[in-house]
Amino acid sequence: MKIRKAVIAAAGYGTRFLPATKNQPKEMLPIIDKPIIQYLVEEAVDSGIKDIILVTRRGQSSLENHFDSNFELEHMLEVNHKEELLERVREVSRMANFIYVRQHRHLPYGNGTPLVSVKDLIGSDENFVYMFGDDLVLSEIPCTKQLIDYSNKKKGAVTVAVQEVARSEVSRYGIYKLAKGSRDRVLSAVEKPDPDSAPSRLAQFGRFILNHKIIDILNEMHEKKKLGKDNELWLIDAIIAYAKKNPVYAARIKGEWMTTGDPLRYMKTQVRYALARPDMGEEFASFLKSLKL
After folding, report:
1. Which residue from 104, 159, 215, 220 has the highest number of Cβ atoms inside 10 Å of its Cβ?
2. Which residues are within 8 A (CB) of 134 and not within 5 positions of it... i.e. 6 or more apart?
3. What pLDDT score was predicted for residue 47?
């Protein structure tokens, strides 16, 4: 079955960016001239996704408004004959079918919780894409397409996107252990392990091909209050529980993985995207060189 849906988690509070995120979602912070969330939506659409399910929380109307039409702005651009800008604004609301789900306050904290919120929107036999709202990938082939293609080669199996990170960084991510002799079959994993006890340096980042059975496991963990590290509902715990009886694969993604989860990494991402822009990359690179750091 062709994958048509992507679930994007955008229900966090962005506390590391306060006060900038006091009244706007972290996912609406710009990378040059587009908000973070738009890059994720574009990646999904460029990978063949038609339906985008955004899991939000109270106070995130700016995110929803961004993917809606803006009559006043469009009218102003039209009467001032700014056709190129008008088209750029209009295409944002036309990219996909947008569905918004509010994450309920009674649910536990954790990166698995958005999936419990959408359990009734995913078919029982349907694979879908799950994306963290703060991970971006610069790549020739969209990261999501790479992951879908890899899952298809594995007969539609649950597949997680991974890249190797420095050992000093493993405590920031979910780290996977592969089956002996295999380059991609997932055996187990640990969420944010100590570097000295990490099973590998293969870190998951925010791209997954999942199915409803993963959601069922997360929902059961929630209902039975079987939460994971720091009393949170972790996706990785559900994936490993699923992997005990079903194949799960780790796909090494070709591209540059960047996270916008904290101010320093957000600024690094800004720099990388600016350097990659044909309309400003060369001039921006010259500026950086002129700083003589």
Report:
1. 159
2. 12, 26, 27, 36, 206, 259, 260, 261
3. 96
Query: Is-contact 286 196, C-beta < 8 A?
Result: no
State how far the Cα of 39 lies from the Cα of 109, in Å rounded to an integer: 25
Q: Record the pTM.
A: 0.92
14: tokens are: 């962005």
Closest CA to 162 of 255, 251, 257, 249: 251
Checking if the pLDDT of 267 tops 90, the result is yes
Question: What are residue 204's phi and psi, to 5 degrees?
Answer: -80, 140
The 10 Å Cβ neighbour count of residue 180 is: 7
User: Residue 8: helix, strand or coil by DSSP?
Assistant: strand
CA 60 to CA 55: how far, in whole Å?
10
Contact call for residues 130 and 253 (beta carbons, < 8 A): no
The residue ranges of every structural domain in the chain are: 5-290
Length of the chain: 293
Please give the CATH architecture assigned to the domain spanning 5-290: Alpha-Beta Complex (3.90)
For the CA atoms of 4, 159, 30, 39, the dihedral, rounded to the nearest 10 degrees, stands at: -40
pLDDT tens by residue, 96-144: 999 999 988 888 888 999 999 999 999 999 999 999 998 999 999 999 9
d(CA 64, CA 10): 11
Instruction: Using the structure block, give the residue that is written with the tokens 């340096």.
Output: 201
Q: Which residue from 47, 49, 89 is spatially nearest to 68, judged by alpha carbons?
A: 89
